[in-house]
Design goal:
Blueprint (H helix, E strand, L loop, with lengths): L8 E7 L6 H11 L20 H6 L6 E7 L2 E7 L7 H6 L6 E7 L8 H10 L3 E7 L5 H15 L3 E3 L1 E4 L4 E4 L14 H13 L3 H10 L5 H13 L4 E5 L8 H10 L12 E3 L6 E3 L10 E10 L3 E10 L2 E2 L3 E4 L6 E2 L3 E5 L2 E5 L1 E2 L4 E5 L9 E3 L7 E3 L9 E7 L5 H14 L4 E5 L4 E6 L2 H15 L3 E4 L6 E4 L3 E9 L6 E11 L6 E5 L11 H14 L10 E9 L7 H18 L2 E15 L3 H10 L3 E8 L3 E9 L6 H9 L4 E11 L2 H16 L1
Parallel strand pairs: 1-3, 1-4, 4-5, 5-9, 6-9, 30-31
Antiparallel strand pairs: 2-3, 7-8, 10-11, 10-22, 12-13, 12-21, 13-20, 14-19, 15-16, 15-21, 17-18, 23-25, 23-26, 24-25, 27-32, 28-29, 29-31, 32-34, 32-35, 33-34
């Protein structure tokens, strides 16, 4: 066990596509370091990181898992992440907890779809990045071509620290002690020279000494410049390894220990104080003596353990008995037990400092992205949320058994608390509870967990599409509400104007009534009526957005004017104006990436075009796969998963993300308006 001082900690996230061997690689590193007796197998379901029954059945990671081992005096924390595009939010969510993102690629499959998104997220999080090429026991020519492809995609800054030799059965060092030898491609001396040239570029004094003396620089002289090059994204080391055979494992461990940044050397994630435009950045120092600032990057809800928050400490020291606040909460909780994680196992520890990854249990108030602290002075600290792609695929769910409505609601909210890529919506206009996820697999796994963990079975159907309505012009509206019932009557008259706003600006209500034409106490009633009409829609029953409403005149009666009268008058005047302002219906347009066999390109592009889709281009992966880049209306992709399987014989997959909202074609708008009218009459 190390003393876990800041200089002796390395936090690494293994990210990358499914099937590249991230979990197997983590398992072999754990075994080699002596953290476990023998390495488990993904096929047999015996690994530290894939312990969930669903993961064992699927033989792929579905969630992030924390594990650790010691290499000499250095503690290395590894976060293993899922590779399926459906679970990309879970992968992105752990990036604030580490200094280094290690992209694991398979030498057999090369660069796959989704990799750019992960590397972009790591870059946006200002992480040091490295690339691990796994499964190197393939044809040497394929490895050379893959390195060239890596450099084409991510830049010439991607340089190998070692090279495979003897058909991938070993690796030769190109940085610490380059002694030469025959490699499977390229040469050790050439690789070493490229690394030196790249590193000295960030240090003028070092470059000058290197050029003037002509002497070989030693790794110790390059350390500071190497760290700077990593932090600035000027260098992206490439390491070759085989998790199955063990080739290159020692070289990878040496790289992690000697070259990857510790918590004091990486770029810390940004924390802010205050809200909105007034928020200011706060400097966080990895100092164990300062106030505690920690970030919750994962939440688990276990039927036996309760709600568990897993967090990374960025400043200060957390000990058993520490009182911690959650965000701006005024009541602290006591850390009764503090744990470090080894897969599913919790090991109690007395304390942890900056760089530590820990967990607390049975804290019902803790949520993903919370900031934990021990001082009221920091009660407004917050972490800017990661940029997740919005969940686009939805299922309307309802309990299969009557009386399970409450159980369903509880299960959904517990699952959503664990998964930043999952969203639950209740759509009042259609009275639907909609489960929104990243894809078909994501939603299927969620339903399975509901059944197995919470004993809740659901019936599902495709949800109504989230159309919205808006206007394309400006218009005046007027309505006089007058009602006499024998006693006191109702009276209210409203004149207003509607104007379109830019997409995304929402709703603006302006009061320009003068002279008391509408008494001030009734203006909120007018706004209430307008908002009611906006929720109910004017074309096809969908919410109206991006509109400014200006109330400029009206009339009232000293006896009969009441709030209800001005609610009605505001609502009807608004609908009158919208009908004259050329209202339109907007539909969500998604960007879609479809990965398919090369021989299916024609059929897939033709099918997308028939769905009102547009093909934007394609990317070739290897020799037999292609990624089609396009966009299409979400309404046309409701059953796309089944169609794609049919076209490609089950070999196709796709991911999508919201691009924008666009006006629907006139024919579609007419059909939706007619359906709405029919449902109203019914």
């Amino acid at each position: 066990m190390t003393d876990n001082t800041i200089a002796n900690i390395r936090n690494i996230a293994f990210v990358g596509p499914a099937g590249t061997g991230k979990t197997t690689l983590a398992e072999r590193l754990l075994a080699k370091a002596g953290a476990i007796k023998t390495a488990g197998s993904v096929d047999r379901g015996t690994t530290v990181c894939d312990y969930d029954p669903q993961e064992k059945e699927l033989q792929h990671s579905l969630d992030t898992t924390v594990c650790h081992f010691d290499r000499g005096d250095t503690r290395i924390n590894i976060i293993d992440t899922p590779g399926y595009p459906d679970f990309v939010a879970r992968s992105i969510s752990v990036l604030p907890a580490v200094e280094t993102a290690a992209l694991v690629l398979s030498a057999q499959t090369g660069i796959e779809t989704g990799i750019r998104r992960l590397m972009k997220a790591a870059r946006n999080s200002r992480l040091c990045r490295m690339i691990i090429v796994n499964k190197i026991d393939v044809e040497p020519a394929k490895l050379g071509a893959l390195l060239s492809e890596i450099q084409d995609v991510f830049g010439r800054r991607c340089l190998p620290l070692n090279l495979p030799a003897e058909a991938g059965s070993k690796v030769l060092d190109c940085f610490f002690a380059p002694e030469g030898g025959d490699t499977d491609f390229s040469s050790v001396s050439e690789a070493h020279e490229h690394i030196i040239d790249q590193v000295v570029e960030v240090d003028e004094a070092l470059m000058e000494a290197y050029l003037e003396s002509g002497q070989e620089l030693q790794p110790g002289q390059l350390h500071d410049a190497f760290e700077k090059a990593l932090r600035e994204g000027h260098l992206m080391p490439v390491c070759f390894v085989s998790g199955e055979t063990g080739a290159g494992l020692d070289a990878l461990l040496e790289t992690l220990v000697k070259l990857m940044p510790n918590p004091a050397e990486g770029n810390p994630p940004p924390f802010f104080k205050g809200e909105g435009d007034a928020a200011t950045a706060v400097e966080i120092k990895p100092d164990p003596s300062q106030h505690v600032v920690a970030h919750v990057f994962k939440v688990m809800v276990d039927p036996y353990v309760g709600r568990m928050g897993i967090f990374r400490i960025h400043q200060g020291t957390v000990k058993t008995g520490t009182q911690l606040f959650i965000g701006d909460a005024r009541k602290p909780f006591r850390v009764a037990h503090l744990y470090e994680l080894q897969g599913k196992d919790l090991n109690e520890i007395p304390s942890a400092g900056p760089g530590g990854i820990c967990a607390v249990t049975k804290i019902d108030e803790i949520s993903y992205d919370d900031v934990l602290h021990d001082s009221h002075d920091e009660d407004n600290y917050h972490h800017r949320p990661a940029g997740f792609p919005p969940p686009m695929m939805g299922l309307a769910v309802e309990p299969a058994r009557r009386g399970d409505e409450q159980k369903l609601g509880d299960a959904l909210h517990k699952l959503a608390a664990e998964d930043p890529g999952l969203r639950i919506e209740h759509r009042a206009t259609t009275n639907e509870t909609v489960l929104l996820g990243m894809g078909d697999l994501h939603l299927r796994m969620t339903q399975q967990r509901m059944k197995e963990r919470y004993n809740v079975e659901v019936n599902t159907h495709a949800p109504s599409i989230s159309y919205t309505e808006t206007i394309t012009g400006a218009a005046e509206g007027h309505y006089r509400h007058k009602k006499q019932t024998g006693g006191a009557g109702q009276f209210g008259e409203v004149f207003l104007r509607v104007e379109k706003l830019r997409r995304g600006e929402g709703f603006e209500f302006v009061n320009k009534v003068v002279g008391g034409a509408i008494p001030g106490q009734f203006i909120p009633a007018v706004e209430k009526g307008v908002r009611q009409a906006m929720m109910q829609g004017a074309v096809a029953g969908y919410p109206i957005e991006d509109i400014r409403v200006t109330v400029h005149d009206g009339k009232h009666h000293p006896v009969d004017s009441k709030e209800v009268a001005f609610v009605t008058a505001g609502k009807k005047a608004f609908l009158d104006a919208v009908a004259k302002a050329r209202p339109i219906l907007l539909e969500p347009i998604v960007e879609i990436d479809v990965t398919i066999p090369a021989d299916a390109v024609g059929n897939v592009t033709g099918d997308l075009s028939s769905r009102r889709g547009r093909i934007l281009g394609n990317t070739t992966l290897g020799v037999d796969r292609v990624v089609i880049h396009g966009e299409a209306p979400l309404s046309e992709l409701q059953e796309y998963q089944n169609q794609l399987k049919s076209i490609t014989g089950g070999a196709g997959m796709f991911s999508m993300s919201l691009s924008r909202y666009e006006a629907v074609p006139p024919r579609v708008q007419q059909d939706l308006a007619a359906q709405h009218k029919t449902s109203d009459e019914d």
